[in-house]
Write a structure and sequence with these properties.
ATP hydrolysis activity, hydrogen ion transport, mainly alpha, rod-shaped, 112 residues, transport, 1 helix, ion transport
């Protein structure tokens, strides 16, 4: 009986070894796929990060240009208003001086 069971045991041992090899290959394949997936994910994250950094830099530059343009426009508008007030003051300067002189030199009539 031991002679006839020996080939059966050998067959079982060979099948077990084959199964272990298959499991080992599957684990190795899974490990390789996991590493490859991780590398792909890191690559995608880096590409996304670079894309977003470029967009941020672009929008920051655009916003800064817009802010500078707004400041320049506000400065021009303020300067135009100052010039308008100065022109108006220069135009009525003689009239205001004459009126002040008349008020200061005119006799003051106080009603009691």
């Amino acid at each position: 009986m031991s002679a006839s069971s020996s080939p059966g045991i050998q067959t079982l041992l060979a099948a077990e070894q084959k199964a272990q090899d298959i499991v080992q290959k599957a684990r190795q394949y899974r490990s390789e796929r996991l590493k490859a997936s991780k590398a792909d994910a890191l690559k995608e994250v880096e590409e996304y990060k670079q894309k977003k950094e470029a967009e941020f830099a672009s929008s920051s530059t655009n916003e800064q240009v817009s802010a500078n343009q707004l400041n320049e426009d506000a400065e021009k508008a303020a300067q135009a208003q100052i010039e308008a007030v100065q022109k108006q003051g220069a135009a009525s300067k003689d009239k205001v001086i004459k009126m002040l002189v008349e008020r200061v030199t005119a006799p003051n009539t106080i009603k009691a």
